[in-house]
Amino acid sequence: MENTTFEESIAQLETIVTQLERGDVPLEEALEAFQNGMVLSKQCQDTLTKAEKTLTKMMSEEEEVPFSGEEEA
């Protein structure tokens, strides 16, 4: 799972969620799928955090405005 792209990880997560939502997966397989999903979720969150930091740095080099992730009203 380490060399998968963000998009591949999201697709794998969607597959896991679909399997678990069906409810017809044996308990042992469901637990393993859940664990894999948690690992994928953390990897995706780490990727998003790194991307946010990169964007914040790029934006601060252009102008002194930190990236908050939300638009101001």
TrEMBL record:
EC number: 3.1.11.6
Domain of life, per lineage: Bacteria
Predominant location category: cytoplasm
Family annotation (InterPro entries): Exonuc_VII_S, Exonuc_VII_ssu_sf
Subcellular locations according to the entry: Cytoplasm
Catalysis: reaction(s): Exonucleolytic cleavage in either 5'- to 3'- or 3'- to 5'-direction to yield nucleoside 5'-phosphates
UniProtKB keywords: Cytoplasm, Exonuclease, Hydrolase, Nuclease
Entry function: Bidirectionally degrades single-stranded DNA into large acid-insoluble oligonucleotides, which are then degraded further into small acid-soluble oligonucleotides.
Family named by the database record: Belongs to the XseB family.
Subunit organization: Heterooligomer composed of large and small subunits.
NCBIfam families: PRK00977.1-2 (NF002138), xseB (TIGR01280)
PANTHER family on file: EXODEOXYRIBONUCLEASE 7 SMALL SUBUNIT (PTHR34137:SF1)
Listed name of the protein: Exodeoxyribonuclease 7 small subunit
Annotated source species: Enterococcus viikkiensis
